[in-house]
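User: Show me a protein chain along with its predicted structure.
Assistant: Here is one chain, sequence first, then structure tokens.
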Amino acid sequence: MSFSATLSRFMASTSMRLPNATPSTLYRFDASKRSWSLERIETEASVSVSFSDPDALFSIVSWNVDFAAPFVLRRFQSALSHLEKLLSPHLDSPPPSTIILLQEVHSSCFQPLLSNAFIREFYQVTDIARHSYSTVTLVPRTLASLISFVSRVPFTSNTKMHRDCLYVDFDIPLPPHPDSEPKKIRLRIANTHLESLNGFGDTARPKQLGAIAKLLTASGIDGGLVAGDMNSISPSDLDLPERLDLTDAWLVGLQNTDSNQGVDETETGESEGHTWGYQPRCEFPPRRLDKILTKGKIGATGIQRVGVGLKVEGTDIWVSDHYGLAAKIIVQS
């Protein structure tokens, strides 16, 4: 069966779970051709990865890399270098590998992204070109065989900024049990940038996150995670995840501080969870705009901020106005 036929068949079977979805795919760098090639995604992911520890399936890094500030290419290249430095020590060990969720990737940044040696060797990407700015998800090659579906769902009438959500579904094999057949669960990883600003944004964000929350545990999905810039700028945003039955990984981290699973290792408290408002300081107060939220049989632990105080080397240019977030992903009963 051709790739397009396979994708069409799977879209038909999942249309109720992903309304208005635009089928997407992955691209893999082909060293022999010196180019990025379309990677076929099977409707039933092949199982070539085993997980012996459900407490360490993989890790997530989510980061809004700021498309609007000057020197976008230099800043983006610095962000990639920082991610390589952060992730390289873990490449020689077994999973967890790290999925990277980027927001506000400027269209001009695809050239440095796709020419980066670290990305070429260790990652596959959901996009190799986009208009304006957008979300991009980078999946480790070690996890790519577990992917069963990739799609991008626009928020349609609930956005004036052309925002959407990028979904990647994984079929995760569970550790074998002597008394049962091998099992797997399907997890959905979502990458989003909710509507900005007050006014229309205040009414749009609950609808946008509500639509995502429904799809994180839709039919056939055992658990889901959404990470990204939630633009929590209004009082009504503060308890929005709770109202949608989403678990906020940062708040869970605060509860676990006394059990040596602390947040940022040395910091506690809601204010230390702020991810925006320091790089640089501005007339608006610092806020916890970026979040990792989970639902169903998936959890996030050991959450930390990344990119704190990070500047382009040899300059006073902030790499991004946002801090990123990193966490380990676990299966929950």
